[in-house]
């Protein structure tokens, strides 16, 4: 058999080992996220305003189980990550190849979505969706910015026509409202 | 034979020109979304939900029937042609399917997959027609303790089966469970974890979570990795997909075995069709090893036939479980549940009495949808692959715009857009660091069921936890859970020991 075993797996270019340090460091990130959620639940549990009519087991009962579970899991995940070798040598198609990525592009994409939310109502669907489309395309990597802008405008307009005029969905018209 | 006459009426209702149009449209759109890498049938339903708002309930559900199976037909197309499975359910297909494509047999692989999906869906939907009313009667026997057992079953199964590390699976699960607990408590009316934000009183919508985790998370992942170069489409995309009689005979038993494996998993909630597709793949490989000339590893037609039939069989019976028991066993089913509720209907035993006409039209539409999809996919599969000729940046920019549209159109709330962004970032982090996504969805979907049934059980027993394991049905469920976990552990150890052929 000349075939490389990794060839059978979707996104695992040969040479990259799954479950490397980035993956175990990653477990730490998710552990922190779960810890954050657990703290949010704890605060919520303490400040919860339970009506006297609530019969036991009341509204606190189940979230309490989740909170304890979340602290426990955060601790176990963090422990596993700090000990280094993550037991999960994922070789299935879920394994992610490149250990590093483009953080700037990612932030640009997230920022674009945030900007979309901010300008959606004041500027309207047409302009904000154009911007969103264009910015995401640019963050993935584009060499033809002006051409992309045209495509963005066409897509955004097509959605507006199909969904707003055609199907009657309520999309914010914004400053261009008078034109349509 | 009451079912047959009712189904006949359903067909009569579904066979109006306008309804047929909705099925075809749904099948086309579902396939189109399913073909896109990273987006499976759950996303197809979620993104197309707003489209159906302007239709009457019957038209909407008929369209869903097309979308539902369409997503599954679509995701294996990409798995075979370019080795990028549309959804996790197509991963098993991609192994042998892509090898077939590489050796110039892409049309045959596509045909095998399309026919397999058709047969699996057909068998499962037929079973649903005859057994859904029975299932509805069984469901009446289910009390809170039994539903709680089902939910626990689903949690443990999805957390342990889908990921290689149980701890990571449980971590994903708890994120989903916590997301689902936000909002006003249905039993006592208490505000929980809303931080006094009125937009959170109704909880976080399943659509927001699905779009965030599955779609936006994927977009961010693509952006982060910046893979602008499109995967080189296989040269063997031309030619009509057809199977010789020999190939057909070769694939036929695998289709049936796959369907057999897939059918029970529609009712057992383990997080969708991922498990049965891998089980079908494993079974076919085991059987293949015993043959004189093992074909696996060189593009075995059975390696495509089995998983495809299993995946669609699961989807078919999942629809039965949703309609008859009100139990969503996959993310797709959960969104369908949300759609039912949007129209003021509650799936479950009573649905067959209250909305019988709609249910039977829906079931009939599933059959029509399957036929339409087979017709669409046999000749058109290579055409779908042309979607990949769209530059990646436009593909994902378009997905992002549709995410925003889908979320905003369902609620018209900017707060939901903020939530979907936050959840999308979480979805990205989980992808980036190899945390499985299916348990998140199962946690979100079944978390509320677990809580209400647990509290109702304890409420009626006066706080005695023994009630949770008091009935024979719960014994069966917990016993089954143990058995499934053991089998999974055993199979995993074995498949690890014999990874390559």
Question: Can you tag this structure with a few keywords?
Answer:
heterodimer; A: 180 residues; mainly alpha; 2 domains; disordered N terminus; B: 501 residues; two-stranded antiparallel ribbon; 19 helices; 73% helix
Structure description:
The complex is a heterodimer of chains A (180) and B (501). Chain A folds into two domains: 6-82; 103-176, no CATH class. Helix content of chain A is 61%, strand content 0%. Chain A is built from five helices and no strands. Chain A is flat, with a radius of gyration of 24 Å. The termini of chain A are far apart. Chain B is mainly alpha-helical and 501 residues long. A two-stranded antiparallel sheet of chain B has the order 1-2. Chain B is globular. The termini of chain B are far apart. In chain B, 64% of the residues are buried. The chains are: A mainly alpha (180), B mainly alpha (501). Chains A and B meet through helix 1, helix 2, helix 3, helix 4 and helix 5 of A and helix 5, helix 8, strand 2, helix 9 and helix 16 of B.
The low-confidence parts of chain B are 232-236
**Structural class label of chain A:** mainly alpha
Total number of distinct structural domains of chain B = 1
* Helix and strand pattern of chain A: HHHHH
Which secondary-structure class do the elements of chain B indicate? mainly alpha
> How many β-strand runs of chain A?
0
**Which word captures the global form of chain B?**
globular
> Ends of chain B: how far apart?
48 Å
Radius of gyration of chain B equals 22 Å
Low-pLDDT segments of chain A: 1-20, 86-98
Tell me about the largest β-sheet of chain A: none
Strand content of chain B: under 5%
Number of domains of chain A: 2
Anisotropy-based shape of chain A:
flat
Considering DSSP H and I runs of 4 or more, what fraction of the residues of chain B is helical?
Answer: over 70%
Question: How big a fraction of the residues of chain A is strand?
Answer: under 5%
| Structure annotation, total helices of chain B | 19
State the helix count of chain A: 5
What oligomeric state do the depicted chains represent? Answer: heterodimer
Secondary-structure element order of chain B, N to C: HHHHHHHHEEHHHHHHHHHHH
């Amino acid at each position: 058999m000349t075939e490389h075993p990794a060839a059978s797996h979707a996104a695992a270019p040969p040479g990259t080992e799954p479950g490397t340090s980035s993956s175990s460091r990653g477990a730490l990130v998710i552990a922190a996220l779960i810890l954050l959620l657990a703290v949010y639940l704890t605060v919520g549990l303490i400040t919860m305003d339970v009506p006297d009519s609530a019969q036991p087991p009341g509204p606190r009962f189940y979230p309490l189980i989740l909170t304890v579970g979340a602290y426990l899991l955060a601790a176990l995940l963090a422990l596993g990550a700090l000990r280094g070798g993550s037991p999960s040598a994922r070789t299935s198609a879920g394994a992610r190849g490149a250990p590093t990525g483009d953080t700037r592009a990612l932030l640009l994409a997230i920022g674009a979505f945030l900007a979309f939310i901010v300008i959606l109502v004041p500027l309207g669907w047409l302009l904000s969706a154009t911007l969103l489309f264009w910015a995401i395309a640019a963050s993935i990597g584009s060499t033809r910015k002006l051409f992309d802008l045209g495509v963005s405008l066409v897509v955004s307009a097509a959605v507006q026509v199909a969904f707003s005029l055609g199907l009657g969905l309520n999309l914010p018209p914004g400053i261009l409202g008078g034109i349509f | 034979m009451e079912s047959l006459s009712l189904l006949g009426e359903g067909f009569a209702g579904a066979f109006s020109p306008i309804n047929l149009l909705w099925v075809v449209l749904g099948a086309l759109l579902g396939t189109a979304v399913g073909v896109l890498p990273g987006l499976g049938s759950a996303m197809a339903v979620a993104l197309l939900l707003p489209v159906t708002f302007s239709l009457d309930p019957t038209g909407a559900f008929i369209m869903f029937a097309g979308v539902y199976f369409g997503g599954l037909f679509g995701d294996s197309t990409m798995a075979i042609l370019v080795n990028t499975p549309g959804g996790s359910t197509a991963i098993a297909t991609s192994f042998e399917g892509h090898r077939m494509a590489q050796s110039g047999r892409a049309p045959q692989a596509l045909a095998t997959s399309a026919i397999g999906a058709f047969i699996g869906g057909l068998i499962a939907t037929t079973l649903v027609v005859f057994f859904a009313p029975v299932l509805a009667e069984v469901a009446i026997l289910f009390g809170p303790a039994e539903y709680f057992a089902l939910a626990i079953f689903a949690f443990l199964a999805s957390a342990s089966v889908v990921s290689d590390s149980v701890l990571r699976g449980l971590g994903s699960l708890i994120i989903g469970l916590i997301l689902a607990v936000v909002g006003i408590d249905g039993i006592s009316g208490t505000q929980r974890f809303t931080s006094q934000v009125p937009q959170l009183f109704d909880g976080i919508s399943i659509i927001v979570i699905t779009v965030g985790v599955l779609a936006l998370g994927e977009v961010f992942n693509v952006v982060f990795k910046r893979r602008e170069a499109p995967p080189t489409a296989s040269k063997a995309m031309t030619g009509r997909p057809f199977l010789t009689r020999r190939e057909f005979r070769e694939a036929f038993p695998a289709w049936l075995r796959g369907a057999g494996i897939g059918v029970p998993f529609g009712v057992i909630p383990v997080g969708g069709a991922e498990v049965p597709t891998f089980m079908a793949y494993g079974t076919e490989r085991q059987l293949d090893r015993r043959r004189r000339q093992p074909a696996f590893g060189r593009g075995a037609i059975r390696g495509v036939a089995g998983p495809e039939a299993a995946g669609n069989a699961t989807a078919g019976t999942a629809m039965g479980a949703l309609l008859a028991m009100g139990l969503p066993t996959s993310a797709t089913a959960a969104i369908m549940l949300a759609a039912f509720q949007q129209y003021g209907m509650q799936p479950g035993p009573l649905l067959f009495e209250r909305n019988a006409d709609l249910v039977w039209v829906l079931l009939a539409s599933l059959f029509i949808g399957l036929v339409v999809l087979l017709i669409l996919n046999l000749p058109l599969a290579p055409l779908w692959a042309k979607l990949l000729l769209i530059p990646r940046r436009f593909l994902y920019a378009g997905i992002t715009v549709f995410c925003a549209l889908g979320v905003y159109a369902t609620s018209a709330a900017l707060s939901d857009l903020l939530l979907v962004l936050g959840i999308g970032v979480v979805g990205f982090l989980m992808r980036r660091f190899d945390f499985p996504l299916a348990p998140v969805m199962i946690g979100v979907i079944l978390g509320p069921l677990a809580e209400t049934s647990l509290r109702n059980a304890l409420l009626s027993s006066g706080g005695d936890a023994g009630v949770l394991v008091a009935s024979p049905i719960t014994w069966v469920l917990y016993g089954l859970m143990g058995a499934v976990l053991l089998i999974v552990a055993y199979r995993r150890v074995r498949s690890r020991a014999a990874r390559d052929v």
